[in-house]
Amino acid sequence: MNKLIYLLFIITFISCNKSDDSPVSEFAGNYKIVSIISEKAVDMNNDGIVSNDVYLEIISPYHLNSTKIIEDYYSFDFYYAEMRPLKYQTNNAQFANFSIPCQHIEYTSDGSPFLAFYLQEFIFYTYEFTDGDEVILTSDSDHDKQFGCINSMKRTGKDTFVLNMNMNLFDFKTEKWIDAPIQIAYQKIPDKE
Predict the structure, then answer these.
(1) Domains of the chain
(2) Element (H, E) at 120
């Protein structure tokens, strides 16, 4: 009799575990930004050249002034979007942290703007899937409004998705902030076993 109770307990326990094949578990993981394209050309690295390739503007050397150039100012290799729940987490909440680099501009004593650093923003979201490729995002925070807003998220493949958003970008050519429609593409990073 004890063996039968033990066997029933094991069967019940195994059948109650969440499936690793659920849409959430397949989607969950870390994602790297592979491109950022803007509908408006902008000079974000102060080299005097405007471009629609925001990704390239961010990773290119930053020109502090005509004589001082800073190499390796930003690297996408250290900042990833995180779609939870990750497999090592016990909380099954569907959180999304996009870690989008946003400019923090300061001004010299003579009023010249310069890029102080990049902030990692758009990090407090929850997500849910629709019947199609669209993903519904929700945020209870107004914090990101100063940087822009995410308009939509769409899965483009098993391991890829895109964000369509409006983002405030500082253009060194005009020395003004512009509201630019942009698209950010993400690629899933394989899990390290």
Answers:
(1) 20-188 (2.40.128)
(2) strand 113-121
